[in-house]
Structures are given as C-alpha cells and as structure tokens.
Amino acid sequence: MNDKFTTITSTCVPLAIENVDTDQIIPARFLKATSRDGFGENLFHDWRYDRDGKPVRDFVLNDPRYSGSILVAGKNFGCGSSREHAAWAIHDYGFRVVVSSFFADIHRNNELNSFVLPVVITQRFLDMLLQAVTDNPSTEVTVDLEHQTIACRSLGITETFEINPYKKYCLQNGLDDVEYLLSKMPEIKKFEQDHES
C-alpha cells in the first residue's frame, strides 16, 4: 500500500526545458537495479553533476531556492525510450506531481503506475506558471485529485485536468494494480461461485 493521494499544496521546481527524454531523466547506466528504490539520487544526473561528480551550480535541482513535491516541466516531458525507471526516479526523488502541457504516453502511464500524478495543463498556463515559479520560488500550486483541478492562487488561474478513472481510484486509495485486484477478491470469489457450472 502506498500513500493515498488527495490534495497537494506545494512550492514547485521549474524545469523550463522542452522534450526532456527518459535518458535525461535517468541515464541508462543507472538502470542496473530492479527495485524502485534509490533512483532519485541519479534523477537528471548528467544535468545535476559535472564530469567530476560535482553539482552543477545553475541546474535547478541544485538551486536551494527551489523545492517542493511538484515538478513543473516543459512541453513533451518523458519522450524517448519507455523505461519505467524514469518514473521511479521522479517518485524516489520526492515529486508527487509533474505538470506539463504534454507528456509522452508511455511515460505518463509509468508515472501513474509509480504514484506520481502527471497533470496536463494548457501551454498558456504552463508558460505563466514557469515564469511565476522562476521569479518567486515561494509560489504555491494546489492539485486537487478528487475534483481534478490545478490552481495557482498568485496567478488567479485554475484549470481542470483529465485522468483515467481507474488510475484516479488507485491513487486515491494507494493501490497498485495487484493491490487493486486483491481488494476485489471477495467480489471475484462471489462471481466465481455464482457462475460455477
């Protein structure tokens, strides 16, 4: 059982880069593990660290002004290969929400399976949000899964977002696919009993 997702209000980390692919999110050389833990320390590794392993000062994850459980990313986030480790790294780092105007389909589903909520907003909202967070790191965003809304009070903007009803239920109840099936065992057994030949 994972943490249940309800409403999150948080400051944000702005990553104003378009077409971020999964190899940039988690480079291939870090894909040796099979469990979901430990990938966060290598999230955006080649942007976060130089060749000597020292933090790159001007990369946003190394900027102490920015923090929070919401990553605001440029258009076409998660393109490239289908590696689920990219979503694992995002979750393991501590992000619960990624906001963009467009996600690659496979990566979007991998985020949902990793208990990270991908929120699609209009390009206009994204541009305004990236600017607001960059200018003022204390800018907060509220993501309400129940009502499927994302709001930034300082901008006076609220938008709705789409999510698969099944994945919404799983996030709200902290269930992965196996746990969901196990939660339905009484109904499954009853169905089998009612349909025995």
Describe it.
With 197 residues, the protein is of the alpha/beta class. 33% of the residues lie in helices and 17% in strands. It contains eight helices and seven strands, in the order βααβαβαβαβββααα. The protein has helices at residues 22-25, 45-48, 85-93, 105-113, 123-135, 165-173, 177-183, 185-194, and strands at residues 7-15, 70-73, 97-100, 117-120, 140-144, 149-152, 157-160. Strands 4-3-2-1-5-6-7 form a seven-stranded mixed β-sheet. Helix 3 (85-93) links the parallel strand 2 (70-73) and strand 3. The radius of gyration is 18 Å and the shape is globular.
- Average pLDDT for all residues: 92
Rounded to an integer in angstroms, the radius of gyration calculated over CA atoms is 18 Å
> Strand pairing plus helix content: what structural class?
alpha/beta
Question: What is the overall silhouette?
Answer: globular
Task: Report low-confidence residues grouped into runs of 5 or more.
Answer: none
Strand content: 15-25%
Q: How many strands appear in the DSSP assignment?
A: 7
**What helical percentage do the residues reach?**
25-40%
Number of helices: 8
Biggest beta sheet attributes? 7 strands, mixed
**SSE run:** EHHEHEHEHEEEHHH
- Give, in spatial order, the strands making up the sheet with the most strands: 4-3-2-1-5-6-7
Distance between the termini: 36 Å
